[in-house]
Amino acid sequence: MLLPFALLLAQAAGASTLTCADLPHADHPKAQLSNGEVDAVVFLPDPTQGYYRSTRFDWAGVIGCLSYKGHTFWGEWFPKYDPLLNDSITGPVEEFRSQDGALGYADAKPGEPFVKVGVGVLRKIDDSPYKFFTAYPLVDTGKWTVHTSKRAIRFQQHLQSPIGYAYIYTKTMELDEHGGAIALKHELKNTGAKTIQTDVYDHDFFMLDGRPTGPGMTVRFAFTPKIEPSPDTSFDPSLATVEGNTIRYLKELQPHQTVAGYISGYSDKAADYDITVENQTTGVGVQQTSDSPIAKFYLWSIQTTISPEAYIHLNVEPGKTQSWTIRYRFFTR
Question: What gap in Å lies between CA 154 and CA 173, rounded to an integer?
Answer without folding.
Answer: 7
